[in-house]
Write the structure tokens for this entry.
Amino acid sequence: MLKIRLIPVMLMRQGMLVRSVGFTTYRPAGNPLNAIQFFNQWDVDEIVFLDITPGKSRGVGRLDDNYERFESLVDYTKYISRHCFVPLTVGGGIATIANMRELFNAGADKVSLNTIIHSHPEVLQEASGMFGRQALVASIDVKKTRGNYEVVTGYGKKMTGMNPVSWAKEVQKLGAGEILLNSIDNDGKMQGYDLKLIQMVADEVDIPVIACGGVGNWQHLVDGVKKGHASAVAAANIFHFSEQATKKAKDYMFEAGLNVRKTGFMHW
Amino acid sequence: MNMKSKIAIVDYGMGNLRSVVNAFTFVGARVKVTNNPKELAKAAGVVVPGQGAIRDCVANLHKLNLVKALREEVIQKHKPYLGICLGLQVLGDISFEGGEFECLGWIEGEVKLIKPKGLKVPHLGWNEVNILHSSPLFEGLSDKECFYFAHSYILWPNDKSVVVATTDYGEELPVAIHKKNVMAVQFHPEKSQGAGLKLIKNFINFVEKTAC
């Protein structure tokens, strides 16, 4: 049987690894490469790397912290893939087939798409025929307005009026292989996933749903699987600044009876 | 150990090889990415990775004159071969992926779509691997170690004794093959963290031993 996956999400903004709260507040969290190297030793099953730099102003930001800056997501992917021996998903502003191809050649195993699916759904369809469904993750950000769930794009700024379940079915039909489902309301609050949202979507689609947004303790990861019916659980903030955090999370999930992959330290 | 032997990673236009190159380099191999038969002749070991459709895979190998070159190096000169994913499937006689395509025929058997009851296809994600027979590939690796899979088709060898490992996904799939100097895995060692790097290192050690 396939294992339940644990996935750290790394958010990069202007060349810096950041923590995010509600898609509005960002705090620096160090050099992304260090994080990738640690995650690779600490039992994670995949890594999702999202560039959330708004507009085109990549590569700026602080320059006094003594680590390399990269002009594009492609350059960054080349750099981190050298140290990434689990499947790597990259995303952030991807809009063309050519750009996807560049990212795969740079070492990405999957690309995460969001805004482009809303403006040009045919791009997802075409990508699916070309690269296969397994290489395509549809990222869906959701916000609650007057008690109703609504899909939001454009880095959490643009309301679409779409219901998450119907949008999830739509991206599945267009050719997405997975859904990364994020609750903007819960993002950075550390109060747990929006389980109702996750279950609602996970029960209605055939492709795997990755739960994201709001993890504050390891039990939240277990809830995401047991109550939210997610195939994989993701988190960002909780994994920063803490020694072997992902390993401890895995231990906890295992103790709670989840079918997870555990490894010891491997010498080669 | 003095790692001098060169390993050729065959680039025949089937998906990105960067992950494979990264992993081999990480564990200390000297690699050459190539589609040139002359380079294969110079190498001590050959790796054939690949993602995508078998039709293109076989067509590209023929177009680049690699079928003959691989046969010379691997079957006649007995150089160690490691197939990954499509590099395993292509060893069979015939594949039924999107039609009927003749493959290399080094391992008798057919490549068919997996049909796991009640489970999704493709078989995508981490799964446990059961080691059936000892093989240099799995040296130092324990039974039930997890590896990363991404496939819809599998080669069913006629001779079961070449299957060194299986995985349970609705049924027991033959996921690692070893016959003399020919080794192949259906999963992706380059994406299977420590266990995968260990398997790659094992292949490199096998190449070193054979080359001496």
